[in-house]
Design brief:
Blueprint: H1 39-59, H2 63-70, H3 74-102, H4 105-118, H5 128-160, H6 165-188, H7 193-211, H8 233-261, H9 272-286, H10 288-295, H11 297-317, H12 321-335, H13 338-348, H14 354-383, H15 385-396, H16 398-408
Helix pairs in contact: 1-4, 1-5, 1-6, 1-7, 3-5, 3-14, 4-5, 4-7, 5-13, 5-14, 6-7, 6-9, 6-13, 8-9, 8-13, 8-14, 8-15, 8-16, 9-12, 10-11, 11-12, 11-15, 11-16, 13-14, 14-15
Length: 410
């Protein structure tokens, strides 16, 4: 059954009014996407974002256990961790094809349940080969879920006719906090890793089964291309997503070293910067929908990009830890709503099918997280870490520079 969702005319700032146009198909040819705003659709996609964040965060506390169980060095561990990223990126391309051809509902449920089933295996597999394969499958489920839930979220937002993407992405952050906290608590109470992951998997599966009946049935096509190369405005959206995710990955992996190497904080407090960045990003996303509704996409991109770039500059130049902390909060608040806006525009553009566009933006963004920290490391080795962070500030300035083009795109 093929259903096409149409976006309405574009306003002065590039935001869509989502007015319906064209003839109304017979009732038998309509999907849930043709219905009015339904709260249960919003709840279902929020649960998907929550499960994605929760699942990947559950793995983080298991890394030391995996290294001890396999008796491997840092190099081998790094190769295993790369399996997760490669599995995610590879699956994202396929997820775009599947979402365009068959819709997103089944893919969301299958991917979420897949993560829940594989998670316990990550706590018991005892050879690098088997754990590497499991991590690749786990990453593939995560990547597929990431693409499908964002495509679904774009359609839910269109039906609601108001910004919702920031709130959806905030639930991913909440899931991350909850997953890391849940696993850390159970492990600190001397739970066996297998038992802890089994409980986590049960919670994830229950959430996906709860969401299943209420997920929006998105557009599907029984014919058409299985792959569409990114083009037009989608190339710009993907590049900006890569920049934004690159900044997030750099703050995650390098902020502690930047703070400690400049003697702003002790080694024990090196994680303060990323913690403040994460809290600020979550707060920014929870308040972002109301902000975007008031300001529009163009102004949000300009303000967010400039605030983030200024925050990076404050972190680099800060003479004391308190001022650096303010800088990390500025970066988190500035970056918080950039990605949700970019995903929204990917779903609204007309250069290529939305499912392929969202997949391209997601894949490039995730590549930024994977490759960004390594790039910063190479640059830092040659010119210093502070100079490498100036590069991040410069890259973030590309967002406000491109905001007008993004908002004008049909």
């Amino acid at each position: 059954m093929s259903v096409t969702s149409q976006a309405g005319p574009t306003g002065a700032d590039g935001s869509s009014s989502h007015a319906a146009s064209g003839p109304i198909p017979p009732e038998s040819e309509r999907s849930d996407a043709a219905h009015n705003d339904r709260p249960e659709n919003r709840l279902a996609v929020r649960l998907a974002f929550l499960v994605a964040g929760f699942g990947v965060a559950c793995w983080a506390p298991l890394v030391p256990f995996a290294r001890h169980r396999l008796a491997i060095d840092e190099g081998a561990l790094g190769a295993l961790l790369l399996c997760l990223g490669l599995g995610s990126v590879s699956a994202m391309v396929m997820a775009g094809m599947i979402s365009a051809r068959y819709g997103t509902k089944a893919l969301i449920v299958a991917s979420g349940l897949g993560m829940a089933l594989v998670l316990p295996l990550l706590s018991v597999l005892s050879t690098p080969l088997t754990l590497g394969v499991a991590l690749a499958v786990f990453g593939a489920c995560l990547g597929s879920l990431d693409v499908a839930m964002n495509v679904n979220a774009v359609e839910v937002e269109k039906q609601s006719r108001r910004p919702l993407m920031s709130g959806f992405h905030a639930l991913y952050s909440v899931g991350g906090f909850a997953g890391a906290g849940f696993m850390t608590l159970l492990l600190s109470l001397d739970f066996e890793p297998l038992h802890a992951t089994l409980l986590g998997g049960v919670l994830m599966a229950a959430a996906m089964l709860m969401a299943w009946p209420y997920l929006l049935i998105t557009a599907s096509a029984s014919h058409g291309p299985l792959f569409v190369a990114p083009r037009g405005i989608v190339l710009l959206l993907a590049a900006l997503a890569g920049v934004t995710f690159l900044v997030e990955g750099a703050v995650l992996d390098w902020s502690a070293l930047l703070m400690t190497s400049t003697n702003l904080v002790s080694t024990a407090h090196g994680g303060l910067g990323f913690m403040l960045f994460s809290v600020a990003m979550t707060v920014g996303r929870f308040t972002g929908d109301a902000l975007v509704s008031r300001l529009g996409d163009r102004t949000t991109l300009i303000a967010g990009g400039l605030l983030g770039a200024l925050g990076v500059a404050v972190v680099i130049l800060a003479p004391v830890a308190a001022l650096a902390a303010v800088g990390f909060v500025m970066v988190g608040l500035g970056a918080s709503n950039l990605v949700p806006v970019l995903f929204r525009r990917a779903g609204q553009q007309s250069a290529m099918p939305p499912a392929f566009a969202v997949a391209a933006v997601t894949t490039t963004g995730y590549a930024g997280v994977l490759l960004g920290p390594a790039l910063i490391g190479f640059i830092a080795q040659g010119v210093g870490l502070s100079t490498a962070f100036w590069l991040l500030a410069g890259l973030l300035c590309l967002v406000p520079v491109s905001a007008g083009r993004v908002a004008r795109a049909p």
